[in-house]
């Protein structure tokens, strides 16, 4: 069962997931924030994003619609969380 | 009659077919991928008791022709590929060999009888499968009991140098939805995921999976020579913007240059099946 989440809760969840699942060679323990660009920082590639979206959808109960999403919003932690919550 | 793969046409197959005539151009053959494919092919040793040998994703038939030229004539070779123009080139290449046939097919649809294949190989094709579970079941189906197999394909961490540089550019030109859709076309597995997948149909000690990381250095032009292999990913970038995108990608790759050239690391998985 999933419950409605606040943006702050979702941001924490995403940061925690990225800290455990980021690409090898990018040790950023403790340095990922809501404003971190996950692609420019090399933390996730497109496969990583696929895994992350599956995780977010399973946790939030939201189906994330990426149609017409601004790329610069998508790749930042808080942006991705806002996209998710817009679908709630 | 509907061909076994026509219903499964996808951008990758369509693009391989459209660009087939460029596939054996020198820049691709001499690229890191050409070298990697030759290395995999060189590791294949055909045994005297193989009767039917299958190459899945045979492309233009280079591996089949090379192996057929070294095999006894009583061995039958079959190559399958879903890309029509690739098959046409393969047919021309294997024409001198009466024991080689080229058919339409893919990992998910192998046009051979159950339990008929003695040895199955595939070089850099399995990651294009659209349904890994169905592909493994189909491979299992066509192999004889005691058959052997070598599958070489790219792993999850392939091309790591390029990925970090090019992903922001492809995101800009494709947008998030298309970028992820494009990534889903490749089934790049970790070694652990590959083991879980193949263990559904095969068991140790016959089954083993190795992984390797081999870094190749080349010029920008050298690397661009193998771009023909991945053009299918970019079909949905409007033509007017494609040239601009290519320019940005080239500039980004040029930033990677070091003493020996621009590095590209192939993460290869090798699924091996041997008689117990």
Structural overview:
- The complex is a heterodimer of chains A (88) and B (276).
- Helices cover 50% and strands 0% of the residues of chain A.
- By secondary structure, chain A is mainly alpha-helical.
- Chain B is of the alpha/beta class.
- The longest helix of chain B has 25 residues, at 160-184.
- Residues 1-8 of chain B have low confidence and may be disordered.
- The A-B interface holds A 23-25, 39-40, 42, 45-47, 49-50, 53, 66-69, 71, 74-75 and B 156-157, 160, 163-164, 167-168, 170-172, 175-177, 179-180, 182-184, 188.
Record the SSE blueprint.
The complex is a heterodimer of chains A (88) and B (276).
Chain A: H1 7-21, H2 46-60, H3 71-74, H4 77-86
Helix pairs in contact in A: 1-2, 1-4
Chain B: H1 11-18, H2 20-23, H3 26-29, H4 32-42, E1 52-56, H5 62-68, E2 76-81, H6 84-93, E3 100-104, E4 117-123, H7 132-142, E5 143-154, H8 160-184, H9 191-198, E6 207-218, H10 220-224, H11 239-254, E7 262-273
Parallel strand pairs in B: 1-2, 1-4, 2-3, 4-5
Antiparallel strand pairs in B: 5-7, 6-7
Helix pairs in contact in B: 8-11
């Amino acid at each position: 069962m999933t419950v409605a989440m606040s943006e702050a809760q979702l941001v924490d969840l995403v940061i925690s997931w990225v800290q455990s699942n980021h690409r090898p060679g990018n040790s950023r323990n403790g340095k990922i924030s809501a404003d971190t660009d996950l692609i420019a920082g090399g933390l996730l590639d497109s496969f990583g994003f696929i895994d992350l979206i599956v995780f977010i959808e399973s946790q939030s109960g939201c189906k994330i619609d990426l149609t017409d999403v601004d790329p610069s919003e998508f790749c930042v932690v808080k942006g991705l969380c806002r996209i998710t919550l817009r679908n709630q | 009659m509907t061909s076994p793969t026509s219903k499964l046409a996808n951008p990758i197959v369509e693009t391989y077919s459209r660009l087939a005539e460029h596939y054996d151009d020198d820049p691709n053959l001499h690229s890191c991928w050409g070298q990697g494919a030759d290395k995999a092919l060189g590791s294949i040793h055909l045994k005297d008791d193989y009767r039917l040998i299958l190459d899945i994703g045979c492309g233009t038939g280079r591996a089949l022709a090379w192996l057929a030229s070294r095999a006894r004539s009583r061995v039958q070779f079959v190559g399958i590929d879903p890309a029509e123009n690739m098959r046409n080139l393969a047919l021309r290449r294997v024409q001198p060999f009466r024991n080689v046939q080229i058919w339409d097919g893919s990992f998910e649809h192998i046009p051979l009888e159950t339990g008929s294949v003695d040895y199955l190989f595939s070089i850099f094709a399995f990651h294009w499968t659209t349904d890994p579970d169905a592909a493994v079941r189909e491979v299992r189906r066509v192999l004889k009991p005691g058959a052997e197999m070598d599958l070489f394909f790219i792993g999850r961490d392939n091309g790591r140098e390029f990925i970090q540089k090019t992903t922001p550019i492809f995101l800009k030109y494709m947008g998030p939805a298309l970028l992820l859709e494009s990534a889903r076309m490749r089934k790049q597995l970790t070694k652990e995921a590959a083991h879980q997948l193949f263990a559904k149909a095969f068991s140790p000690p016959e089954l083993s999976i190795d992984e390797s990381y081999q870094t190749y250095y080349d010029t920008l032009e050298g690397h661009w020579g193998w771009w023909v292999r991945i053009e299918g990913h970019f079909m949905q970038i409007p033509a007017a913007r494609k040239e601009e995108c290519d320019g940005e990608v080239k500039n980004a790759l040029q930033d990677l240059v070091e003493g020996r050239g621009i590095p590209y690391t192939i993460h290869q998985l090798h699924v091996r099946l041997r008689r117990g």
